[in-house]
Amino acid sequence: MGSLWGRLDDVQGDAGYGSPSEHPPRMGFFTDTSVCIGCKACEVACKEWNSVPEDGYLLTGMSYDNTQELGASTWRHVAFVEKPLDVPAVDLGMPAMGAPDTEGVTWLMSSDVCKHCTHAACLDVCPTGALFRTEFGTVVVQPDVCNGCGYCVPACPYGVIDLRKDDGRAFKCTLCYDRLKEGQTPACAQACPTESIQFGELTELRERAARRVEELHDRGVDVARLYGADPDDGVGGDGAFFLLLDEPEVYGLPPDPIVTTRDLGSMWRHVGAAAATLVGLGVASFLGRRR
Q: Is residue 6 part of a domain?
């Protein structure tokens, strides 16, 4: 129990929920950015359902992206990535008006969210147990238990979780845990008009995503690739993964995320060995003086 690194096929079992027959299947998100239209319905639905406060009405000047990044008051973030039209356009079958402007820009749109990692460093470093693994394999913050220490913030390899400035406690996406317990779809996926955000059993979503990538490759979209779907990656695979149309860095995602607590066990073993050595030296020194 409490694995920190490596492939882990039964996340809930590792968290103490028993065998796979004793708990629900792991649930998650598959976000297909190739059909995201940037409508931000997911951002609005998330805020409305979870009563997430506004995060400032600022015009950032960064394309149509005024939320900029995930945070304590932004649990869903729709990124508008502007790219010069210096490569031939690929027909994705999406609605369009007229020929593309070859001297302008094109957008890559993606709705980002907490990844609900298999190995969640935020959970591992939380000293109060405010962060916990649910029976659905998701990672949730209990605000009434959080003491605002902030250890979880630098622990997240994706920069997702944050402290709310006027509150001091940590907040992030819960994958609508309250709705999951009632057998309902999370608010963001329910509101998505193009089904860019798909919710379901993680195993089935990974299979569906692999088929979607093959479909896009067959249609000439060779840049399509999955991000966070590999259970053998540095975080053991994500509970919320993506189909991207460019390198992860273009979307502001780390190219090779690794759980920051990977070496925690080894570190404590080294600390223990060092402490034992010091005690041994102290005892030897004391006995030497007595002689």
A: no
